[in-house]
Amino acid sequence: MKDKKPIKSVFKEGAITSEFIGNSIYKHQTKTSIGAHNIFLGQVRADDIEGKTVAAIDYTAYEDMANEKFHEIRESAFEKFELTCMHIYHSLGTVKAGEICLFVFVSSPRRKVVFEALEYIVEAIKAHVPVFGKEIFEDESHQWKVNT
């Protein structure tokens, strides 16, 4: 089991950029013990809901509680899977349709592990982390997002 890491904030204001994602991945290219990486990018969809199109989602969270939950998920994944590293970032504030709102990156010496770990982490985030989204429609009306 790895040493427990201190709780850190996983939140980024606004969309998570491709530059941020690329820099996060690039840092691991020199680690020769890693055999596989896997990433999940959650993207805001322009869903059609009752004749209205989602233009953006405004994310809010109980930040302290959410960071604790992200930390618990992280620690649980490190205990359950043979992971070398993991990054989790979630947006706060407004993220437009087509932009990234969740970035999860895992690395392991083994290929199969990264697929299993990533699914476990993303499902745990969706089920347990108090992050809420207000869907903003093209006509500027809004409603709270229902997790699907």
Topology:
Elements lengths: L10 E3 L4 H9 L9 E8 L4 E2 L2 E10 L1 H18 L4 E12 L3 E9 L2 H18 L2 E7 L4 E3 L4
Parallel strand pairs: 1-5
Antiparallel strand pairs: 2-6, 3-4, 4-5, 4-7, 5-6, 7-8
Helix pairs in contact: 2-3
Q: Which CATH C-level class is it?
A: Alpha Beta
Largest sheet, described in full? 8 strands, mixed
Kindly report the average pLDDT value. 93
Q: What is the structural class?
A: alpha+beta
The residue ranges in which pLDDT falls below 50 over 5 or more consecutive positions are none
What count of helical segments does DSSP give? Answer: 3
| Beta-strand segment tally | 8
Please give the share of residues in helix: 25-40%
What name does CATH use for the topology? Aldehyde Oxidoreductase, domain 3
The Cα radius of gyration reads 16 Å
Highlighted features:
148 residues, alpha+beta, Aldehyde Oxidoreductase, domain 3, eight-stranded mixed beta sheet, 3 helices
